[in-house]
Automatic annotation (TrEMBL):
The keyword Transport does not apply. Transmembrane segments: none annotated. The gene is sodA_2. Residues 90-168 form the Manganese/iron superoxide dismutase N-terminal domain. Residues 176-278 form the Manganese/iron superoxide dismutase C-terminal domain. Keywords: Metal-binding, Oxidoreductase. The lineage of its organism: Bacteria, Bacillati, Bacillota, Bacilli, Bacillales. SUPFAM superfamilies: Fe,Mn superoxide dismutase (SOD), C-terminal domain, Fe,Mn superoxide dismutase (SOD), N-terminal domain. PROSITE patterns: SOD_MN (PS00088). GO terms for molecular function: metal ion binding; superoxide dismutase activity. This is superoxide dismutase. It comes from the Bacteria. Its EC number is 1.15.1.1. Belongs to the iron/manganese superoxide dismutase family. It is an enzyme of class 1 (oxidoreductase).
Amino acid sequence: MSTIQNYLLELVEWGEEVQRKIDSLEISAEEKNSLNKQIETWIKNVKVNSNRDITHDDEIIDVLQGEAQRIVLSMKHNHNSNTEQVGYGKHKLPQLPYNYNALEPYISEAIMRLHHDVHHQAYVDGLNKAENELYVKQPDKSLVKHWLREQAFHGSGHNLHTIFWFNMTPNSDKKPSGDILKQIERDFGTWKKFKNLFNSTASSVEGDGWAVLYWNPRNGRLGVQSFEKHQLFQIADIIPLLVLDMWEHAYYLQYKTDKESYIENWWNVVNWQNVNERFAKAKKLKWALY
């Protein structure tokens, strides 16, 4: 048995240990089922490749390692969302749940590095500064409005980008399925009608903004909205499920002014499993319908 085959067998053992760890996590049944499906698929892929004649520099090794990293990050993400708080001014840049080049050819490595490491980091830094001024230092009354604006801009930027990274995957199913598909068909008629509306929404963004699929607990329906910058044109009380960054820094290096190609290619990396997970949580919030 070759060294690489031994390594793959060790990966299978690691995956089985992860399965046991998932069962001990204090998360919902839906989250456990989702994580278990992911690790089961990963173990199956490892076993299939253990029977192939592959080398250390084979691309599949990087793919398997990247997918394992994504699963572990998803476990940490779900665990942290249930057990911890973030102190004022203590926000951190989340690690990408895949490699920088994983979304190619649809989104380039260069864009991902610039977008994540520079732009998102700037929003984290800006949010931390605003929160420190508002909640730790207690600002002069004349500066409160300024820091509230900074909190809204950078806080919305940080939150939207965090959704955005996990809304994408190199292993996209390309189309929605499960509960989110049923709700899309119930509220928009068909998947195609929803996609056309979402594309038009993204194209309509002037300058800087986002296209957003959201759940509205006030009417029990999905909706689509564009956000200007990060914090403007929002609808209070909605829950974003799927977001597309339409700021130029998200696509210009690769697509220049061709926004339409960026929008269309982005559907190839949408993580519908993540959208379904967000939808399952969002539906649990129930308000009186008006």
